[in-house]
Amino acid sequence: MIDQSPPISDTDLLDWQCINETRILLLPQHFQTAARLSQLIHYPQQRWQVYLCALAVLGFEQWLKERAPDLNIQTNTASIWQPAYANLLTAVCNITVGDFKLCLAIASNLTNQHSLPFAIFDIPNLTAHFYLLMRVEEEEAQVVVCGFMNFTEYLQKQAAQQLQVESDWTYTLPEAWFNSDPDQLLLNLRCLDVNAIQLPATAPVQTDVTVLRQKLMMLKSQQPWECLTVKEGITLLSHPDLVNIAYNIATPALAQPLINVSLWIRNQIDTLAQELGWMLMPSPTLSPLRGLRGNFEDIRAGLEAQGVEIPVIAQSAYCDLKYKQGGLRLYVMTWVLSEMPHPEWTLLISLALQPHVQMPKTLKLEVRDETQLLFNQSLQDTNQGILYAQVIGNWDERFWVTITADDEAVFEIPPFGMELE
After folding, report:
1. Distance between CA 37 and CA 330 in Å, rounded?
2. Which residues on neighbouring strands pair with residue 329, listed in sequence order?
3. Per the CB 3.0–4.6 Å rule, which of 126, 234, 291, 303 could disulfide with 308?
4. pTM confidence score
């Protein structure tokens, strides 16, 4: 067996990333495939991680075909392409390279401690001969293989460290557990006897699934680790029929409701927007709300100072987004650009301070249409400026907005659309 290389310290992490030879450029079709998959995930908190997992496996497949065309890789049966499993499991299981099973997991971009689903190690049908730690650098359109570890090495380190399953059904593994040499990975895949790494035998989980099937009904409003024990999680992920039940229970309405901004222009607001707490911006003549209007005018003036032209016909609304550590206010402005012969409308999104609430230190704003990512920008210091995006579409187009605050709170907004009556 190939020995593991010395651990990487925090101080040389950035230098190591720069010289790593496993970087592969992602192609436009990779992003489109990942985006389509993410739309099939019912838990909003899972969509971003599933999106990254899809990019990781597509990037790794391309890298392996370029670096080792003699090795046969199969990803079609990987768990990530099964939405029911991807809805519960943010890792890519059941990739095969020759006779070996591989599992890909996403590395943290902020620390050398990485959260990996416990199931990929503890459930026999999801285990792998090799575990690959992947870093996805979406803004640079790159994927990097950070390191690898085989199942035997995992068992030895786990026996020594006695890691415990955390509340979100993950283990936190240090990057030092992983071998960072890509050539040793390829050497193992080419030369190692598959029997040198023994995987646990798959056996039926002996338990009464009737009670668990009833408990799954709670998943419509909760994620599985919020209402199931780890033992129940093992049962769930060991039974494909239960996985499918969980996916179907969490299924949103087939026709996803939209926030209809065409009503805003007529100074009206739709039912969905009302239920989500959206408020139309008041007229300047409404004196009781002048303080709110004044705050918004500061935002508007700041956007115009950056060259964003906002016509007087634009209608605006806002929604307060809160999480445990703080909150922010999401402003949306919209107006019609043209009606004939090519009708178009625009959506302007801006993030700002919510009164009397701590502002996130960092923000990330993404805007997508039905097929691709249109805007992706981060603000590392919210004291330094305004984070905003503007998109233009035909009247039949919809736009999805995702906001990440302090790299932990993710807000997925239902699609905005111009639905004319």
Report:
1. 27
2. 320, 352
3. 303
4. 0.59
Query: What distance in Å separates the CA atoms of residue 163 and residue 186, rounded to the nearest whole number?
Result: 29
234 and 328 inside one domain: no
Indicate the SS3 state at residue 103.
strand
Based on the domain organization, do 40 and 158 belong to the same domain?
A: yes
Q: Edge-to-edge, what's the strand order for the sheet holding 409-417?
A: 259-260, 409-417, 398-405, 363-368, 373-379
Domain membership of residue 95 (yes or no) is yes
Q: Is residue 6 part of a domain?
A: no
Give residue 69's domain range.
13-203
What span, in angstroms and rounded, lies between the C-alpha atoms of 367 and 345? 15
pLDDT at 274 over 60: yes
What are the two backbone dihedrals, phi and then psi, of residue 83, each rounded to the nearest 5 degrees?
A: -50, -35
Q: What is the pLDDT of residues 154-209, one digit of tens each?
A: 999 999 999 999 989 999 999 999 999 999 999 999 999 999 999 998 766 556 66
Residue 272 has pLDDT above 80, yes or no: yes
Tokens at 318, concatenated: 């806002």
- Are 332 and 393 contained in the same domain? yes
Averaged pLDDT for residues 10-36: 67
215 and 329 assigned to the same domain: no
